[in-house]
Design brief:
This protein has 280 residues and is an all-alpha fold. It has helices at 3-30, 38-42, 45-65, 68-91, 97-110, 113-116, 124-138, 149-159, 162-175, 183-203, 206-226, 231-252, 262-277. It is 77% helix and 0% strand.
């Protein structure tokens, strides 16, 4: 690296640290009992968790659009959630952003011995295996190959969004032989769960109805897995189509949709559906 490149890098790092410190100061001011924002002061780590999830999804959406300005903006919103969580923890004497940054840096160094140490790896699979083994050792858990299968699945259920967790759990279960012999068995299971859900709706408690709904959804995702379909992507597409049809309905309607009868709404829906099918 040339001296000019080093100078530019040093200035870039300084500017970045200055901007990060400004964000930390802004968040601290928002949380200050002396002139801070009532909304920010009312927040707890628990009340902010929905925003962490929401901002993460908005980052993903921005990345998928390829809009660089939107990506930078959404990453900023996500970074705000990190700084805000750290600020609240600091106020309670738990930890600060310093510990957060130090912890992740140290973790990356420990889990990349092939970069920061003298370990050699041949491919990505070996990198992943080393990562999992080091992670297990850090947590005092058995190495992945010695960990109980149910413990692995339990981790997915706790940490991943439900759709993603179900796909991961069923894929791992299938890999060890807990699988139907053919697709007919999957369809039979789906119809069985559908009947049980219908019976629960008619005769069971809300708790049992909820349980049967979960079983039905689980069986639908097994069908998706067998047909190599992505349920999250499928549902996202349905959401988008639903909104597009509503947009068409609103464009065709002469008054708010809430002022229409059910029959009128159905007619507008079918009209919108036909227009979109034709590319209109």
């Amino acid at each position: 690296m040339s001296n000019l490149q080093k100078s530019n890098q040093t200035q870039f790092d300084a500017d970045t640290l200055t901007a990060l410190q400004e964000l930390i100061d802004v968040v601290a001011k928002l949380r200050s009992p002396d002139g801070g924002c009532p909304w920010d002061l009312a927040q707890t780590p628990q009340t902010l968790t929905p925003y962490v999830i929401e901002e993460a999804y908005e980052v993903v959406d921005a990345i998928n659009t390829g809009d660089q300005q939107a990506i930078a903006e959404e990453l900023g919103d996500l970074l705000l959630q990190v700084v805000l969580q750290a600020q609240i923890a600091k106020e309670y004497g738990q930890f600060s952003l310093l510990e957060v940054a130090q912890s992740i840096s140290q973790k990356l160094i420990r889990r990349h011995p092939h970069v920061f140490g003298d370990v050699s790896v041949q491919n990505v699979d070996e990198v992943r295996q080393n990562w999992e083994q080091i992670k297990a050792a850090e947590k005092g858990e058995p190495s992945p190959e010695h960990q109980k299968f149910s413990a692995k699945l339990s981790s997915y259920a706790r940490k991943l969004p439900p759709l993603m967790a179900t796909m991961k759990i069923s894929q791992k279960a299938a890999a060890v032989g807990f699988e139907w012999e053919n697709i007919d068995g999957v369809w039979d299971k789906f119809h069985e769960e559908l009947r049980e859900f219908q019976e629960a709706l008619a005769h069971e408690t809300p708790e049992q109805q909820q349980a049967e709904l979960g079983d039905l959804l689980f069986s639908v995702l097994q069908l998706a897995r067998w047909y190599n379909l992505d349920p999250s992507e499928a549902l996202q597409g349905t959401n988008q189509r639903f909104i597009q049809r509503l947009q068409k309905m609103e464009a065709s309607a002469d008054r708010p949709l809430s002022d229409h009868t059910l029959e009128e709404l159905e007619a507008l829906w079918q009209q919108a559906k036909a227009q979109l099918a034709k590319g209109g």
